[in-house]
Amino acid sequence: MNYCYILQCSDGTYYTGWTNHLQKRLEAHQAGKGAKYTKGRTPVRLLYYETFSTKKEAMSREYMIKKMSRKEKERLIHQ
Asked: Which of 19, 33, 39, 78 is the most buried (most CB within 10 A)?
């Protein structure tokens, strides 16, 4: 299984990523090892995720979400 996800960082910003092991990736983010962006913004909180059967689908969705405005991401999270 592959996932595209949105985290909320401690400073209130959003981080979007993809992974094939969501729990392990969240633990890496919390430990400051998940991504350069989240390293100094822990703790992070998982707000949203989608599942995909292929890496390509998850990466495509990540790209689409990263292009969204903050308001569009908030609508996605709250639906």
From this structure: 19
Residues 32 and 41: their CA atoms lie apart, in Å, by 8
pTM: 0.94
CA distance 57 to 24: 20
Do the Cβ atoms of 32 and 73 come closer than 8 Å?
no
Q: Which helix (H) or strand (E) holds 6?
A: strand 2-8
Residue 62 identity: E
Q: Which tens digit of pLDDT belongs to each residue from 45-74? A: 999 999 999 999 999 999 999 999 999 999
